Amino acid sequence: MNGYFVTGTDTDVGKTYVACAIARQARAQGHKIFAFKPIESGCVPGPDGQLVGADQELLAKAAGDWQQGPLRGLYRFALPAAPLVAAEAARTTIDLAQIVQTAHHGAADSLATLTLVEGAGGWRVPITEDADMSTLARALSLPVLVAARAGLGTINHTLLTMEAIHRDGLSVAGVVLSRRLEDDLEAAQSNRFEINRRWPGRVLILGAIPTDLDCLIQAPRIST
């Protein structure tokens, strides 16, 4: 698979915003996108009474709205909690092997040229009693893209997340600071500079200009 595993420095830092922006920009350049968030908690019932994952829906639509069934999301939980906790509340368990198999088949069968798999929460969020998001990323064999806040606190959170990723033996393909309307651009640029002083890789600021993501799209890392 060519693509990225999108993790975050925390919950609600803009993982879906970043993944959707990459998917839309890549589609505009002619890529076939498979955008997959296998696990989502905090879901609400839809018109048919079935749980709907808002982030899963956004990702699928950003990829072209072709994904159906399991390719649109494998696990949806009502409790807004870590996947392990939400699954236990629903009296079920999460099968990592099924997630990995679905991701690989979805990418291969669709002839996707760019695959985006979005995690839930941050790098150490538990999925099962024995596995967390790092376990899933390792099983998928995708380089990791870190989504982070653009504002106060992001330097520490981002560097700690990258340290954990490297310690787990995975590569960080880049960091995307997810800048919101209320985030000061000068502060975001300062944060990017400070992160780059300690880590010389790609640190991007995602705002209103989608072409800022082109360096990730034009040369995706290839994983075997």
- Tell me the name of the CATH homologous superfamily: P-loop containing nucleotide triphosphate hydrolases
Cα-based radius of gyration, to the nearest Å: 16 Å
* Strand adjacency order, main sheet: 2-7-1-8-9-10
Name of the level-1 CATH class: Alpha Beta
N-to-C CA distance:
7 Å
Number of domains: 1
Low-confidence stretches: 219-224
Looking at the overall shape, the CATH architecture is 3-Layer(aba) Sandwich
Helical/strand content category: alpha/beta
Helix count, per DSSP? Answer: 8
Biggest beta-sheet profile: 6 strands, parallel
Average pLDDT confidence is 93
Kindly estimate the percentage of residues that lie in beta strands according to DSSP.
15-25%
Instruction: Summarize the amount of helix as a percent range.
Output: 25-40%
| CATH fold title | Rossmann fold
Overall strand count: 10
Shape: globular
Spell out the helices and strands N to C. EHEEEEHEHHEHEHEHEH
What does this structure look like?
- The longest helix has 14 residues, at 15-28.
- The protein has 224 residues and is an alpha/beta fold.
- The chain contains eight helices and ten strands.
- A hairpin with a 5-residue loop joins strand 4 and strand 5 (51-52).
- Helix 1 runs parallel beside helix 2 (54-62).
